[in-house]
Amino acid sequence: MIRTVLADFRGWLAAPRLIAPTPLGEGWRLWAVMLGLYCAGLVVIGGVLIVWQRAFQVPAPEAFRGYSGPVLALAVILLAPVGEESLFRGWLTGRPRALWLLGMALLAGLMLVAVQVHWHDQVASIGFVAVVIAALVGWLVLRRRVDPPRWFGRGFAVWFYASVAVFALAHMANYPRLSWTLVPMVMPQMWAGLVFGYLRMRRGLIASILAHACGNAAALGVALLVR
Question: Measured between alpha carbons, how far is residue 179 from residues 57, 74, 159, 162, 187 in Å?
Fold first, then answer.
């Protein structure tokens, strides 16, 4: 079983393709193997990054500094997996309503940034409300359509690896200042994007959320022990 899963994972990374996920209840062993592989990969990557961090004096991430234990656990183990998997991989099946919501989420994010930097605040605020309404209307119109657009299927490998790259690079925001030395520090997130993306397409969004939550729980536990 393990060899079969690993071979399928290698084949997937060589040529990502658009498929319909199998329900998680029909393939828990695949999920367990991939979770074990993910954790093993984190151990290896973590060892390399410790050396890199010390060699170049890379600062520690500050994303959750100052939060209490319960709040930190809630954010890391529940909120982050649900939110990040939905945003970065929820649309990978190419369903029209998911692609529409992704587009609207990106537009809404731009509107919020515009408000934050005080660039046409009023227009941006109205635009944000309009985008939220458009997202709801679009979802209602597209909710019964399941076939992905042809352009999405043809370029699936590009969309898949783009989701992996953006997911990883987004975590550079966890650090107090940006520099080229931070690029290797997002290798764990790059690895996570590959594993979770595979699980999302093989066993569905719930599978990737659960794996994400388990991985975050393990990492948080280790961090608290060595604190």
Answer: 12, 30, 26, 21, 15
Q: What is the mean pLDDT of residues 74-98?
A: 93
Non-local (6+) Cβ contacts of 8 within 8 A are 202
Predicted confidence (pLDDT) per residue in 109-152, tens digit:
999 888 888 788 888 899 999 999 999 999 999 999 999 999 99
Q: Are 62 and 202 in contact (CB under 8 A)?
A: no
Model confidence pTM above 0.85: yes
Ordered by start, the domain boundaries in the chain are: 2-12+22-92+172-226
Contacts of 75 (CB under 8 A, 6+ apart): 64, 67
Structure tokens at 213: 């939550």
Which pair of tokens denotes residue 96?
């029209």
Name residues whose C-beta falls within 8 Å of residue 12's C-beta, 6 or more positions apart in sequence: 198, 201, 202
* 65 Cβ contact partners less than 8 Å away, ≥ 6 residues apart: none
